């Protein structure tokens, strides 16, 4: 099954030899194979994508069609469209000779043992002697696929199970067979970690490995409880989503996304090898399979779209599993779940939703047997499938996007308390949990998650993590906190670098972050003397979603314009402190990095972004312009891009340069990027949008981001870093401004934008052009900042801006008024 999973506590050895991987091949251009090929291309690896030859027309039609589909895929399979050029297509009859140049060959054909074995026999004569060959099987015994191959082949054969879609799902389960060469397995695991950005879980060669073993049991267990308690599909999805720290898709929406046939295949793996386990598909699911209702790829599954609906936002139908008829989907509400939503952490949320009496609270009545059943099952499976509870937890976090793995969830509620309630209710308790409690321990984890109880050895063991992994929390435990407030902490990262860790509620940038960052980076401050560089990052799911709009709106509504003005000046002061700090400041953005978060990055000495980066200046969406130095920085970047494109020397007359086509084009491009609130969908796209420089490196693995950012800060410090001086550039002036205003006017006449959009866009255009001045007039950063502050403040006084902010805070969506 191709659902999400995670990293294991049994990770690849840190001393694994470096793998030289110049070219790869993927055998099978189906959904998984083609997307694995796309992600290899994202890592800069040329890929040969092969599938069956078609008897007529284009011989490699299947692979060509897969590549065409990849280019159109949503969400995007490639970081940028250009990476598709790294994929060469072919077929199994004409192109096997090309495998001689491939260092890694991935088998990803249909889940049929005979087909896989025949394919391996056909490719073996074409491989070079050191080529690694792995299978992406989601549950077939890895050793059995290559059982008939020569011993030399079996030494470089093992499993690499990706989760779908491979670009976005973090888990790769690596399954070593008894005959596989340990050094080769370790080398590839290390490469997959660093170059593909995956969390590697070392899994045993057991049916469905780790994540699917637990995940599919959880899904089928939820179905059984739904039928027993007469709940609806929508109710189960509401209870098995964000309510317990699982993805918002819930159980059935996830099954539609993955494919109900894939779910069935994994369940049948269970049935074939684990007859004693209750993992049979219910009758109604078998009927769906017979009718071809396989989920999203078939247009219908547990849900489908109502093509006759007049409201495109309310057109989802849901299956009544009793009648197999579709009906309008509802959004069920459970009072206890609604009350628990305010819990600040996943652990507290979980405790709150399970607090209710299962006999009286429908939510608790479903979730208690669901979760205790999953926890018990995970503990019972542990000795067979994984090295430790941490392996299972990491797999479920990374593979199924659970916030907490099953053992972490159990700890959050209390192992002893749960076991007592289970025994009182007549439920069996896993022998592994009994071993934990009889040893005198009260939780699976201790020492901040650094150690985990091994119920087989009956002692605590260290949770193994690859060298180079770090989080703000682990650095805090190792080195302590230098100073902190509610939104930010300064942590010693080691090697003379300080980490400004952002941890504000909802990832918003408020006065607490602004104050601590500004004070820390002050040129004469004690912390600048203490550290030789800084990194700005955090542990939350997103880097920063922007400034605290609620605080800003309250000040607007109260008419406290002095407070608004002070807040703008303070934010500009923070970004200026980042830019002008005498020590290098490296921003390490990841996830959502919007508005004020993007402005932090624009002012840093360097950026070390995670590959999956959604970065943009989105203030126009709430009726504002970037006011924390973002508009000013885009003006500077327009000048730099134009200079580079025109190859103009510093001695070129400013007035003449300001009128060049390159400068006009660069200004217009930045105007459109900000005005259309363009947000990157990858770090490479952020570079194309002008938010990252050519020198900024990209981290593929989120777990490595902090230490790779620290390495950049050390490198800059040791190179003799000095702060930049305030810049002065020739303004594009009134000539460029007239062109932008004309474009705004035409868009308004065509009713693409509203009057308020036009007002905001005009203010942005003025800043980017330096105002109504003669082209070439010198303007300073301070001048542009002042223009930016005045524009931002004036827009705060607009009623329609206030309406937009209030609507966005309430709904999370933009308002076009």
From TrEMBL:
Transmembrane segments: none
Domain 3-hydroxyacyl-CoA dehydrogenase C-terminal: 209-304, 371-428
Pathway this chain belongs to: Lipid metabolism; fatty acid beta-oxidation
Pfam families (UniProt xref): 3HCDH, 3HCDH_N, ECH_1
Annotated keywords: Fatty acid metabolism, Isomerase, Lipid degradation, Lipid metabolism, Lyase, NAD, Oxidoreductase
GO MF annotation: an example: enoyl-CoA hydratase activity
GO biological process: fatty acid beta-oxidation
Annotated 3-hydroxyacyl-CoA dehydrogenase NAD binding domain residues: 24-205
PANTHER family listed in its UniProt record: 3-HYDROXYACYL-COA DEHYDROGENASE FAMILY PROTEIN, 3-HYDROXYACYL-COA DEHYDROGENASE-RELATED
Protein name: Fatty oxidation complex, alpha subunit
Taxonomic classification: Bacteria, Pseudomonadati, Acidobacteriota, Terriglobia, Terriglobales
């Amino acid at each position: 099954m191709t659902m999400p999973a995670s990293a294991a506590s049994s990770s690849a050895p840190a001393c694994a030899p470096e793998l030289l991987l110049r070219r790869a091949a993927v055998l099978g251009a189906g959904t998984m194979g083609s997307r694995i090929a796309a992600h290899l291309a994202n890592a800069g690896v040329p890929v040969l994508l092969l599938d069956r030859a078609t008897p007529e027309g284009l011989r490699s039609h299947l692979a060509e069609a897969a590549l065409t589909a990849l280019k159109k895929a949503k969400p995007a399979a490639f970081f940028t469209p250009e990476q598709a050029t790294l994929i060469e297509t072919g077929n199994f009859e004409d192109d096997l000779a090309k495998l001689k140049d491939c260092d890694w060959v991935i088998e990803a054909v249909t889940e049929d043992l005979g087909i896989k074995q025949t394919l391996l026999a056909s490719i073996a004569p074409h491989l070079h002697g050191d080529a690694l060959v792995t299978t992406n099987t989601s549950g077939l015994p890895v050793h059995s696929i290559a059982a008939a191959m020569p011993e030399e082949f079996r030494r470089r054969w093992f499993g690499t199970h990706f989760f779908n879609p491979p670009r976005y799902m973090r888990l790769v389960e690596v399954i070593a067979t008894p005959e596989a060469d340990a050094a080769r397995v370790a080398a590839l695991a290390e490469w997959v970690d660093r170059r593909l950005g995956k969390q590697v879980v070392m899994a045993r060669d057991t049916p469905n490995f780790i994540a699917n073993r637990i995940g599919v049991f959880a899904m089928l267990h939820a179905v059984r409880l739904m039928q027993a308690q007469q709940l609806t599909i929508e109710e189960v999805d509401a209870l098995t989503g964000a309510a317990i720290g699982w993805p918002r898709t819930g159980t059935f929406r996830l099954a539609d996304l993955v494919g109900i046939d894939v779910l069935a295949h994994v369940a049948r793996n269970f049935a074939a090898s684990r007859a004693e386990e209750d993992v049979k598909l219910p009758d109604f699911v078998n009927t769906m399979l017979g009718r071809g209702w396989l989920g999203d790829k078939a247009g219908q599954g547990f849900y489908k779209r109502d093509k006759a609906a007049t409201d495109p936002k309310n057109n989802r139908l849901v299956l009544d599993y009793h009648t197999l008829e579709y009906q309008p989907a509802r959004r069920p509400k459970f009072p206890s779940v609604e009350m628990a939503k305010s819990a600040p952490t996943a652990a507290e949320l979980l405790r709150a939703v399970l607090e209710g009496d299962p006999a009286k609270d429908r939510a608790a009545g479903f979730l208690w047997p669901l979760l205790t059943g999953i926890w018990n099952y995970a503990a019972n499976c542990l000795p067979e499938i994984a090295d430790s509870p941490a392996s299972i937890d990491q797999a479920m976090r990374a593979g199924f996007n659970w916030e907490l793995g099953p053992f972490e969830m159990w700890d959050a509620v209390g192992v002893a308390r749960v076991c007592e309630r289970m025994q009182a209710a007549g439920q069996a308790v896993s022998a592994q949990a009994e071993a934990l409690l009889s040893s005198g321990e009260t939780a699976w984890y201790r020492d901040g998650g650094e150690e985990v109880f091994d119920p087989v050895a009956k002692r605590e063991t260290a949770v193994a993590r690859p060298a180079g992994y770090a989080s703000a929390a682990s650095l805090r435990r190792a080195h302590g906190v230098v100073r902190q407030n509610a939104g930010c902490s300064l942590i010693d990262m080691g090697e003379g670098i300080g980490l400004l860790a952002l941890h504000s509620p909802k990832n918003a940038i408020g006065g607490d972050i602004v104050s601590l960052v500004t004070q820390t980076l002050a040129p004469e401050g004690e912390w600048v003397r203490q550290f030789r560089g800084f990194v700005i990052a955090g542990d939350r799911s997103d880097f920063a979603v922007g400034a605290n709009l609620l605080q800003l709106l309250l000040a607007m509504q109260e008419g406290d314009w002095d407070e608004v003005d002070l807040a703008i000046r303070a934010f500009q002061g923070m970004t200026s402190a980042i830019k002008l700090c005498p020590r290098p400041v490296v921003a390490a953005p990841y996830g959502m990095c919007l508005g004020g978060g993007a402005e932090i990055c624009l002012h840093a000495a360097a950026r070390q972004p995670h590959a999956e980066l959604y970065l943009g200046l989105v203030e126009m969406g709430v009726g504002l312009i970037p006011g924390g130095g973002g508009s000013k920085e885009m003006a500077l970047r327009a000048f730099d891009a134009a200079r580079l494109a025109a190859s103009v020397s510093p001695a070129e007359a400013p007035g003449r340069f300001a009128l060049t086509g390159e400068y006009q084009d660069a200004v217009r491009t930045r105007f459109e990027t900000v005005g259309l609130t363009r947000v990157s969908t990858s770090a490479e796209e952020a570079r194309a949008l002008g938010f990252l420089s050519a020198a900024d490196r990209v981290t593929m693995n989120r777990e490595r981001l902090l230490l790779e950012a620290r390495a950049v800060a050390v490198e800059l410090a040791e190179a003799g870093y000095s702060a930049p001086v305030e810049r002065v550039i020739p303004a594009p002036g009134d000539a460029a401004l007239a062109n932008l205003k004309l474009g705004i006017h035409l868009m308004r006449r065509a009713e693409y934008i509203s009057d308020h959009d036009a007002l905001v866009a005009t203010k942005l255009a003025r800043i980017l052009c330096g105002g109504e001045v003669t082209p070439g007039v010198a303007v300073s950063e301070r001048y542009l900042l002042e223009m930016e502050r005045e524009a931002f403040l004036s827009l705060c006084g607009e009623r329609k801006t206030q309406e937009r902010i209030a609507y966005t805070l309430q709904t999370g969506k933009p308002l076009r008024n």
